[in-house]
Design brief:
Two copies of one chain form a homodimer.
Chain A (H helix, E strand, L loop, with lengths): L1 H10 L3 E2 L5 E3 H7 L3 H4 L2 E5 H5 L6 E3 L4 H10 L8 E10 L11 E10 L7 H17 L4 E7 H10 L5 H12 L1 H4 L1 H10 L4 H11 L5 H10 L5 H19 L7 E3 L13 E7 L9 E6 L13 E7 H10 L12 E3 L7 H13 L4 E3 L6 H11 L3 E4 L2 H6 L1 E6 L4 E6 L3 H12 L1
Parallel strand pairs in A: 1-5, 7-8, 12-13, 12-14
Antiparallel strand pairs in A: 2-4, 3-4, 5-6, 6-11, 7-9, 9-10, 10-11, 14-15, 15-16
Helix pairs in contact in A: 1-6, 6-13, 7-13, 10-11, 12-13
């Protein structure tokens, strides 16, 4: 899965970045706060501990803080827009339990601009994720996206421009799945929204039409608040670009209810769901932010990013037996039938490896039966057997462990014939 | 480099293992002791710290302790011999300075047997390393190997069978490079070795002939101590197997002086040197051990392993400008000349990616010149330009940024022609 994700990121021209696992404690704690702060792992060497120092290092708990520090530190050398991906483990001081990990893989992809960043990137990132999830073969999935400017602009155009109140409205909207539309409507009215406004808002949020239809409905609002208009323009461009990028219509959904827990984002927001398993929650989330590294540099660095929580996804797929079968990375076992022929076995191994195959030589003296059982148990599909008999005829015996068939052929033809046999098995 | 190493391990049928970065403090400290103990990083979450607990977790400082714990824990499920490789970062509480790292990559490959493990593996591992270092393209290198049983058995046959005294002899031998043969001879005589014995020992240790010649010289000793005979048999088998595996003669050297700092090993030992840079020290070391996990399980688990200290090697190659050039992973930049054509650019990107290329779409509006400079600076070899003019003719313009040449051709021919252009550049 890691390989597929990496390949996907690179196919779109993103470059890998790795950062140290340690960040200065103060850097990590400035950024976090609240829940995350309780989950930071502090680190101290024996020496430092003995000298009675306090820990000044901590383990990264996400890949965003390291990105911000990295970009601020290398601002002069980097070419902007800076397109990087980072696949590393992050650490959180959780109690180990199902679905909660103390150490897990995060796969982040971000584009960072200097001063400005074109909305075109907001379409490219989900197109990359679509390609990757299709290759990961995890079943049907949908990337839900929205733009926080839409709801905030709409609310402002309805006269609700107090930031605190806007937050309360968004929080109520977030409960839609749990408490249902009538109760959310009630809550919105309690917050001071007129009945008609609450209804219009809710019908937009629960809109089930196509992206174009929802865009048309938004345009029909004729709201003229500049934040709303900006959001609408950005959303429209994403929809056009997704089409040009060849992303299938049903892979993305414009969903204004996507707002929760994404306060950090200022424009586009994304959440990704496995269609058959909404209970997994979002398996890839992200969005656009106005300024990545305001704490570390005076430059304004807007960005957009998406993050795959790979360990959790893997765990969930595994629990539901949804992990795609991966072929074993060893393709051929060369058995050891006659210790006198061990040089023959070793040099055949070298020859097959030069031909590009992953080959294991069985090196312990053991009964053939045991060796074949080993191959079978290890998932190695082919075994090669050369006994005194085959050797004297210049032949080799290939045993297909799944088809339970075997084939004797001249050793000189082996490499050529293997091509077909292995290709056939793929 | 990581990819090459991984591919090399897998070509010989080894399977990857990753273990958590955390080990229980007690597990780590039992194993280490001395210097290493001072370098352990202890880890504690905010919550645990606030409750006044002591740290019970620590970061791994090598991949051997995690391997031992892993094998002991999964002993029942594993198939033995267990052939695993592990490429992960390890952590040591060093002061950050040139050549000393607090976090560095280690690439370990080991075979673990149950109760016994054939000496054939002692030849397979260096053959794998030879293949990998050749692909890494780091210049000429030599794997020095020996077997601790040879010197220990010889000493015993000379009547020096006290383990402490043997250790002192080995320590003196280790100084050969620094203080020269006469002073080492003096030290050996001081330890009670007869003159003639010291000379015989030193002439074996400084032997510069071929592996076969040194083996012959060892046989000529006619020492009959069983430890010596066992070592001689193992060494002879390695020499034969290396040949059968097609390892070039000059890639390995039988060198009895290889003994230092490898007390942990009980048989074969290895050290690898870059020929032109002996000052790098050994860049890949290892050996055979009698029992991997005696602390965690009653089973006897003999093993043999080799470890590449990749971060240090990379740093040294980098300092000496010896790092092989790696082509940029982005092959094509599609420029954005006319915003009206942005859908054309996006869909061309998708098409080229489906054809297997790594392609970046320039998505910011910018002057063509700036875009080409960006490609140049980022090391992207080809740029594709489509303006109104090319679009109306159904053409595309390919710019080769290194050759500073360009080529206009029908878009329908693009994919076919790219094959030659990109292949030609590789």
């Amino acid at each position: 899965m890691l390989d597929t994700i990496r390949r996907g990121f690179e196919r779109f021209g993103f470059v890998p970045v790795e950062t140290p696992v340690f960040e200065l404690k103060d850097v990590l704690l400035t950024k976090s706060g609240g829940e995350t702060e309780k989950q930071v792992y502090f680190v101290q060497s024996t020496g430092s501990l003995q000298q009675g120092h306090e820990a000044d290092l901590a383990l990264r708990f996400d890949l965003t803080v390291p990105l911000a520090r990295y970009v601020a530190e290398h601002e002069r050398e980097l070419v902007f827009p800076f397109r990087r991906y980072q696949i590393q483990r992050v650490y959180r001081g959780e109690r180990a339990q199902r679905g909660r990990f103390r150490e897990f893989y995060q796969c982040d992809i971000d584009v960072i601009g200097k001063d400005k960043l074109d909305p075109a990137y907001d379409a490219e990132l989900p197109a990359i994720i679509v390609r990757i999830f299709e290759e990961l073969n995890v079943g049907e999935f949908t990337i839900h996206f929205s733009n926080r400017k839409i709801l905030l602009g709409l609310l402002a155009s309805f006269g609700i421009d107090d930031a605190e109140k806007q937050k309360l409205v968004l929080r109520d909207i977030d409960k839609l799945d749990k408490i249902g539309r009538p109760k959310v409507r009630e809550a919105l009215v309690d917050l001071g929204l007129k009945d008609i406004i609450a209804d219009r808002l809710l019908s937009l949020i629960t809109h089930t039409g196509s992206k174009e239809e929802l865009l048309a409905a938004l345009r029909a609002e004729k709201a003229e608040h500049p934040v709303f208009l900006q959001g609408l323009m950005e959303l429209s461009q994403i929809v056009v670009s997704l089409k040009a990028l060849g992303v299938a219509e049903n892979r993305t959904r414009l969903n204004l209810a996507i707002a929760r827990g994404l306060d950090y984002y200022t424009g586009t927001v994304y959440e990704t769901f496995i269609d058959a398993h909404p209970e997994f929650g979002s398996v890839c989330s992200g969005g656009r932010y106005d300024d990545l590294a305001g704490l570390y540099t005076k430059s304004k660095l807007p960005g957009v990013g998406l993050s795959i929580g790979l360990t959790r996804l893997y765990d969930q797929l595994n629990m539901h037996n949804l992990l795609p079968q991966v072929p074993h990375n060893v393709q051929i076992l060369i058995t050891q039938l006659d210790p006198q022929l061990s040089s023959v076995y070793l040099s055949l191994g070298t020859e097959l490896r030069h031909a590009g195959y992953n080959v294991e030589n069985y090196l312990e003296p053991a009964k053939l039966d045991k060796q074949l059982k080993y191959a079978d148990r290890a998932g190695i599909p082919l075994a090669i057997i050369i006994g005194e008999n085959e050797q004297s005829k210049g032949n080799v015996l290939i045993k297909d462990l799944m088809a339970k068939s075997q084939l004797e052929l001249p050793r000189t033809e082996l490499i050529n014939r293997l091509k077909n046999i292995i290709h056939h098995k793929d």
